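Format notes (please read before filing issues)

Several people have asked whether sequences and C-alpha cells are stored in separate files. They are not. Every record keeps both together, in the order shown below: the sequence lines, then the C-alpha cell lines. Line labels are part of the format and must not be stripped during preprocessing.
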Amino acid sequence: MGLDPFARTKLPKTDDAPDGMPPDASPEDAAAAPVPVKKPVPSLPVRFFRYIRKHWFIYLLVLPGLIAMIVFNYGPMYGLQIAFKKLSVTKGVWGSPWVGLDNFTHMFVDKYFWVAFKNTVIINLLNLAFGFTFNIFLALMLNEIRFRRLKSVIQTSVYLPYFLSWVIFAGLVMTFLSRSDDGGFVNAVISAFGGQEIDFLKKPELFRAILTVSAIVKTAGYSTIIYLAAIAGVSPDHYESAMIDGANRYHLIRYITLPRIYPAVAVMLILQVSGLFSSNFDQVYNLYSPFVYSTGDVLSTYIYRMSIGGGGEYEVATATNLLFNAMGMVVVLGANRFIKKLDVMGIF
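Then the structure lines:
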C-alpha cells in the first residue's frame, strides 16, 4: 500500500508554537494564546532566610561557636586603631590622638625589631625544612610497620608529647639538657665519654636547633594523625595491582601513597607557611633567656616585651602585630595560589 504524497502529516513541535498550542496552529491562534508568565526569582536575602528557616536546627548548633568567634575574635579588632594612635590611658582608645604611621616608623628603626624578625623567619624556615618533611616521613614509616602491637606502641609514644602543655614540655627539655648534677641526661652521657659538659640553653648558636628539635618532638604526633588518615583512604586494590606488576615497597610509597596524600600535604604546607612571620610564644618564652636573645628572640616575645612585659609601648606592639598578620595573610594567599598551580586542591 503506497503513501499519499498529498496527505497531511503532523509536523513536529517547533519553538515558534507556544506551550499548550498544537504545532500546526495558525499565526492568529498563536497570537491569541496567553503568554506564560514566569515566576519572579526571589532576591538573595529572601532565599538566604528561607534556607536558614529550612535548616534552622543546624544553624542553631553553629550559633554558640559563631557568637564566641564574633565576641572574642572580631570584637577586639577595634583595638587595631592603637597602631595609628598615641595611646592615652585617660582618654581611652577612641579618644587618643591619631599619629598616622609614626608607630610603624619607630618599629622599623628599632634594631631589636630586626633581630626578632630575622630570628622568626630563620626558625620558621628550619621548622618547615626539617619538621614538615620529618612528619611526612614518620607517617610513611609508621604505615609500613606490619606488627600491629609495635605500631600501636610507637604511635602512642609519638602522640603523647602533643597533649602536654609547653610549660611542662619545656621543663622536661630544660631538665634533659641541664648539667649532669641537676639530672641532665645529655651532659651525663657526654661526661661518661670524657667530654666537657655544655650549657645548651645558654649557647646562642645551639638555641635555634633546640627550638626546632623540641617542636618536632612535640608536634609530630598531630601531623602524623592527619597523614595516616589520608593514607588510610587509599584503596588496597592499588597496592595489590602494583605488587602483581612487580612493584616493591619503595615503588608503592613513591607512586601510590605519596601522590594520594598530596591534598593533605598541600593543606598542611599552607598552614605551615602561614606562620612564617609568627612564632610559638609558649615554646620560646619557656626556653629562652637573655643569654640567647641574639638568636632566640622572636616577634612574639618582642611584642610581649614591648607591651605588657614592661616596655609599655602598646602602640608599637600593636603596629608590629598588625603588620605581620597582614603579611601572613598575603603569604597564605600566595601559597594557596601556588598549590593550585600544581593541580592540587588548596584550602579555598
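For reference, the curators noted about this record: Residues 5-11 have pLDDT under 50 and may be disordered. The chain has two domains: 44-82, 102-341.
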